[in-house]
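user: At home tonight, take the chain set out below, taking as long as you need, and be ready to discuss the fold:
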Amino acid sequence: MSGDHKTLIKGSPSQYVKLNVGGTLFYTTIGTLTKSDNMLRTMFSGRMEVLTDSEGWILIDRCGRHFGTILNYLRDGTVALPDSYREIIELLAEAKYFLIEELTESCQQALAKKEREAEPICRVPLITSQKEEQLLIMSTSKPVVKLLINRHNNKYSYTSTSDDNLLKNIELFDKLSLRFSGRVLFIKDVIGSNEICCWSFFGHGKKCAEVCCTSIVYATDRKHTKVEFPEARIYEETLGILLYESRNGPDQDLIQATSSRGAVGGLSCTSDEEEERSGLARLRSNKQNNQS
């Protein structure tokens, strides 16, 4: 613009200067601008020419939205960072431009913390093909529990309790995936095979057990599809699959013990921890009986 010119700015720390940062106006002292080792100290200590307009405003071609935060940080050595992830990124860009290392580190730490907080407690992949299923199972070192749920696979009408039992299976899957998310990979299949509701359990890349929850029942005039909720059996297989956490493979005696049905009949636990403890206690008891 006409009247703009470059000049060197140098004065006492108490001298005030007028700044036009991207159209936003600021008024501060040279002492604030030169308080720490950064680009602003270079600009206002007479070592670097700055652009000034005809009214004496020093022009800085940056967005002025976060420059007030920059000034407050220079004044006090600390500043409250924005709550928004996006605004912290914007402030980080300004801190990097003005070479303010401490504020740059604070922004990076705040962003890392927000990323950790945003990390979900539990991720359940939703698979869409057999190939995806195999890739997931073979690429993890964890045991795997898969729930196939597809209500529309049915050829007949459902029994009166089937819809309720379908929901119970889904709710149990969600509960187990939260309880064991750090130890077991849970995956859900909503378009696979001809099954309606089926649990599969994998260890070391191989299927170890399966619990099918559907059957055909015959009425006087037609067939019906019945969906069951074998809660105790599902708990049993889930606890059994924990044996595959070991890289060296599970104890073969314990595998044999968990294969005997009815071991967890009458399951009535008051908490997830008690369920796991009581289940493992039954496995140990079965192992001792087999040895004797």
